[in-house]
Amino acid sequence: MEDCGKPAADYKKLCDTAVKYGAAFHKAFDFSADSIAALDEILQYYHEEYRENRASDSQLWNLSVIFGVYLGQTLLDTYLTLRGYFWAAGEDSIPVLKKDGKNQMSPITKVYKRLLNGPEDSVKSFYDVALYIADGKL
Prior knowledge:
Layout (H helix, E strand, L loop, with lengths): L7 H17 L10 H17 L5 H24 L5 E4 L5 E4 L5 E2 L1 H11 L5 H12 L4
Antiparallel strand pairs: 1-2, 2-3
């Protein structure tokens, strides 16, 4: 992992927290492609909590970081590392998955949009499209 303000141990800690959240929802977060559909289900729950004003903006952002790092690490573990991607600092120091100056993805921002907007911003779709982008097909 490139230094983007967070040591590798912080990413692991965030992923461990995401795995615990998954377990609380009886979902296995095992860093596999299959776990991303379960992630989308949990994000739907929190989207509804936010829509009903039972979650604050800061809670939404904290969840975005936790689940976004899990999403990003799953992408790296399953596919993107082999295509040259790594964690890097993006705009506003938000961690992104980066290959070079032209190729980067922001799983944290995507999770934030999913929490705000609901299913129209599916993280499963983001995952699938990321694979195409990594292969240069989009």
